[in-house]
Design goal:
Radius of gyration: 17 Å
CATH topology: UDP-N-acetylmuramoyl-L-alanine:D-glutamate ligase
CATH architecture: 3-Layer(aba) Sandwich
Largest sheet: 6 strands, mixed
Strand order of the largest sheet: 5-6-7-8-9-10
Mean pLDDT: 93
Helix content: 25-40%
Structural class: alpha/beta
Number of strands: 10
Number of domains: 1
Low-confidence stretches: none
């Protein structure tokens, strides 16, 4: 959704239930300009999450269930193959079965699209998934779970990023919350400092804001360092307001924050 708000043409492949939550999702996507390429389950409900927010810090704890998205198959991704091949950037995550995500990466890589893997929630990745990912963008917790390297220091983040590249990822981007982000790619290690944009109200959705904005920046031809900075600005703005979908920033807000810092 944030990618559409930032000006990109967005096609979204997933699976929904036959319930009111599916209707809400479709309405939000239509409002944002997202084109849904979704199938509908006859038995599973639409995925849902319960978010608990610390009123003092804005930190969150999330309990979720992907629901119908857990039924997404490789065959359904194949049916969306023309849309995947037409993309400049293909972005996927791990809230649907891994074979479906893997097939999407394979199709996108075969078509020459830039591939981005947001490994959330962290899971044991199948062989070859990182090799298909031009960029992998874990947060601190996900990076540690994927690599076994604690990411509570700058050196730890660099070690984890090096390990992700050693395992096959083209470039690792580790988001570090209030500490900013770290980009580690071929011949490049670049810490990106955090933005200042008002108090933190709620951190839910910050990772989604980063991922969507990062994909937009890459699609527009920004170099990786600029793309991480653009995405960091979008993520920072998202945590200054409550909620998730409706907290996602618009393009003018991101550009203003970049210009101010």
């Amino acid at each position: 959704m944030v990618a559409a708000r930032l000006g990109a043409e967005v096609l979204f492949v997933s699976r929904l239930g036959q319930d009111a939550l599916a209707g809400m999702a479709l309405e939000m996507w239509e409002e944002a300009g997202v084109t849904p390429l979704v199938s509908r389950s006859e038995s599973a409900s639409t995925g849902i999450a319960c978010v608990m927010v610390d009123a003092e810090t804005g930190d969150n704890a999330i309990v979720g269930h992907p629901g119908a998205a857990l039924e997404l198959t490789e065959a359904e991704v194949e049916r969306a193959a023309d849309a995947v091949r037409s993309a400049s950037v293909f972005l996927t995550q791990l809230e649907q079965p891994l074979p479906a995500a893997m097939r999407g990466l394979e199709i996108a890589r075969g078509a020459g699209a830039i591939t981005v893997l947001d490994p959330a929630p962290a899971a044991d990745l199948p062989p070859g998934m990182l090799e298909l990912s031009d960029y992998v963008t874990p947060n601190e917790t996900e990076a540690e779970l994927l690599t076994g390297v604690p990411v509570d220091t700058g050196e730890g983040a660099r070690r984890a990023a090096r390990e992700l590249r050693r395992r096959g990822a083209g470039t690792a981007v580790i988001t570090l919350g209030a500490r900013g982000a770290l980009l580690h790619g071929p011949g490049t290690t670049l810490p990106v400092p955090p933005f200042r944009a008002g108090p933190t109200v709620e951190t839910t959705g910050a990772g989604d804001a980063f991922a969507g904005a990062f994909a937009v920046a890459l699609a527009e031809g920004m170099d990786p360092g600029r793309a991480v900075r653009f995405a960091s600005a979008a993520a920072r703005l998202s945590v200054t307001r409550p909620g998730t979908a409706h907290a996602m920033p618009h393009r003018a807000e991101v550009e203003a924050l970049l210009a101010a810092e």
